[in-house]
C-alpha cells in the first residue's frame, strides 16, 4: 500500500488528526452514504412546512403563543437555516415575535450562557425572540404530568407546556440506545427534569434499547409516551450529510415524521462488514460531536460494534473534548467511587441506582473491558486518570504504540463520522 493510501485523516475538534498506517495494514473506511446537499434548503424547508406530514400547515394555526424546543450547542443543528422559514410561517399566522419563545433543550447538559447563545444563533433571532435555557435541576421550571407505563415520572418545562402550540426542531441521526434522535425526543428529554431523564435512560439496559431500532425499543417507546403526554404538535427535522449540509427535510406530526424518515435513515447510515476489525480508528465527527466526553462516548460505542474483542482488538478514538467531561455528575461519581479498574466501574454501577452522568462511566468501561481503548484527547490529565482513560498525545503515537501488538497484516477500520454511523457485523 502506498503512503497516500496509508494516510488517515480524522476530524478532531475544529481541526484534524493525521497519521500513516503500517505498510501491511488492510484498510476499510466506514461512513454514512454521501448524499448531496440541497441546492436551496430554505425553499425545501418552506415547502415541507406548507405540506406537512399528517398535520395542518403552521401558517393556518390559530394559536396565540408558540414554544419551540431547539438543540443546544452539542449538536451541529443549522439553526440559521431552519429557524427563519419556521418563524416566517408563524408570523404569517399572526404571531408576533414576543409570542414565539425558543427553548434550548439540553436535558441534563448545563444551561447555556448568553455568550454561547449569541455564538450559536443568528443575531436577528437573539435580538427579537425570547430565548430560555432549560435547567433540568430547577424544580421551579418543571410541572409533573404523571407517569409513563414503564414508571417514568414525566417532569416537563412548565412554560413550554403552557404554550398553545408546541414545536420541536432538530436533526435525525442514529442514537446509541434510543434508535434514532429526532421527533419528540428534543422536548421529551431535552426539556425534562432530571428524574425523568434518569428513569428513561435506565431503560438503555433493557433488551431492544439499541441503535437503529425504533419500534420495540423500550427507551424510545418511553420517550414517545412522554411526548404524547406533553402534546407536541409539530416537528421540523432534517438530515445532514458528511459536510453537514442539509439533505432531507421532514415536517409535520411527530409520529408521521419518524415513520416516514426511518427507512431512509437506515438506508443511509447503516453499513455492514463481514468480520470485526483488528484495529479501529474513530472520530465522533469533530466539533461539536466531540465538544465533551459525554458526546464523544457515542462514537466510542458505535465504533466498538465492529472492533474485535479481547486482547487482540484495539480502538483508537480521536475526541478533542475542549469542554471537558460535559457532566459534573460523571466527575463527582468518579471522585466518590475512586474505581481502580474499569471492571470495578461496571461492578459499582450495577450495585447502585441508575443515574445519568455516572452512566457514561459505565458505557466507557463497557467498551474498555472488551478491547483495548486509547483516547487521543485534550481532556485534563487528572480527569483521564480518575476516569481510567488510556491516552496518547496524537493519533500517530497511538498507532505506533499499538502496532507491535497487532497481527502481521491487520484489518484496520476507519470511522471518521462514528456518531452518525450504524456499523454492524453481518454476513447478509
Radius of gyration: 22 Å
Per CATH, the class of the largest domain reads: Alpha Beta
Order of strands, widest sheet: 3-19-15-16-17-18
Q: What percent of residues are in strands? A: 15-25%
How much helix, percentage-wise, in residues? Answer: 25-40%
Number of strands: 20
Could you report the average pLDDT, rounded to the nearest whole number?
Answer: 95
Output the structural class: alpha/beta
Query: Quick one: biggest sheet?
Result: 6 strands, parallel
Give the tally of structural domains: 2
CATH architecture of the largest domain: 3-Layer(aba) Sandwich
Give the full name of the CATH homologous superfamily of the largest domain.
Answer: LarA, N-terminal domain
| CATH fold description of the largest domain | Rossmann fold
* Morphology: globular
Low-confidence stretches: none
Amino acid at each position: 500500500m502506498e503512503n497516500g493510501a496509508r494516510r488517515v485523516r480524522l476530524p478532531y475538534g475544529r481541526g484534524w488528526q493525521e497519521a500513516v498506517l503500517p505498510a501491511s495494514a488492510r484498510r476499510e473506511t466506514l461512513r454514512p452514504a454521501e448524499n448531496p446537499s440541497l441546492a436551496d434548503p430554505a425553499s425545501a424547508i418552506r415547502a415541507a412546512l406548507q405540506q406537512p406530514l399528517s398535520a395542518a400547515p403552521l401558517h393556518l394555526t390559530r394559536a396565540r403563543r408558540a414554544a419551540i424546543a431547539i438543540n443546544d450547542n452539542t449538536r451541529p443543528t443549522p439553526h440559521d437555516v431552519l429557524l427563519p422559514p419556521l418563524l416566517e410561517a408563524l408570523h404569517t399566522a399572526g404571531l408576533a415575535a414576543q409570542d414565539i419563545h425558543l427553548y434550548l433543550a439540553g436535558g441534563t447538559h448545563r444551561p447555556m450562557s448568553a455568550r454561547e447563545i449569541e455564538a450559536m444563533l443568528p443575531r436577528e433571532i437573539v435580538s427579537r425572540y425570547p430565548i430560555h435555557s432549560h435547567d433540568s435541576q430547577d424544580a421551579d421550571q418543571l410541572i409533573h404530568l404523571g407517569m409513563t407505563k414503564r414508571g417514568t415520572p414525566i417532569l416537563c418545562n412548565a412554560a413550554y407546556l403552557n404554550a398553545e402550540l408546541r414545536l420541536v426542531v432538530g436533526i435525525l441521526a442514529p442514537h446509541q440506545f434510543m434508535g434514532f434522535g429526532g421527533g419528540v425526543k428534543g422536548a421529551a428529554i431535552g426539556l425534562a427534569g432530571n428524574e425523568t431523564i434518569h428513569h428513561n435512560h435506565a431503560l438503555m439496559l433493557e433488551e431492544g434499547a439499541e441503535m437503529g431500532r425504533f419500534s420495540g425499543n423500550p427507551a424510545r417507546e418511553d420517550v414517545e409516551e412522554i411526548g404524547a403526554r406533553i402534546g407536541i404538535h409539530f416537528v421540523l427535522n432534517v438530515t445532514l450529510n458528511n459536510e453537514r449540509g442539509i439533505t432531507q427535510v421532514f415536517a409535520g406530526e411527530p409520529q408521521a415524521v419518524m415513520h416516514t424518515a426511518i427507512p431512509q435513515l437506515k438506508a443511509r447510515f447503516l453499513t455492514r462488514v463481514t468480520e470485526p476489525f483488528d484495529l479501529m480508528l474513530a472520530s465522533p465527527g469533530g466539533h461539536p460531536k466531540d465538544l465533551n466526553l459525554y458526546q464523544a462516548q457515542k462514537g466510542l460505542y458505535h465504533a466498538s460494534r465492529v472492533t474485535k474483542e479481547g486482547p487482540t482488538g484495539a480502538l483508537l478514538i480521536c475526541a478533542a473534548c475542549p469542554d471537558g467531561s460535559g457532566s459534573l455528575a460523571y466527575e463527582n461519581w468518579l471522585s466518590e467511587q475512586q474505581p481502580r479498574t474499569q471492571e470495578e466501574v461496571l461492578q459499582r454501577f450495577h450495585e447502585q441506582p441508575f443515574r445519568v452522568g455516572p452512566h457514561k462511566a459505565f458505557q466507557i468501561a463497557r467498551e474498555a473491558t472488551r478491547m483495548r481503548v486509547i483516547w487521543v484527547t485534550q481532556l485534563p490529565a487528572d480527569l483521564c486518570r480518575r476516569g481510567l482513560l488510556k491516552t496518547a498525545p496524537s493519533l500517530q503515537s497511538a498507532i505506533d504504540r499499538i502496532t507491535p501488538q497487532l497481527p502481521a497484516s491487520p484489518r484496520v477500520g476507519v470511522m471518521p463520522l462514528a456518531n452518525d454511523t450504524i456499523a454492524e457485523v453481518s454476513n447478509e
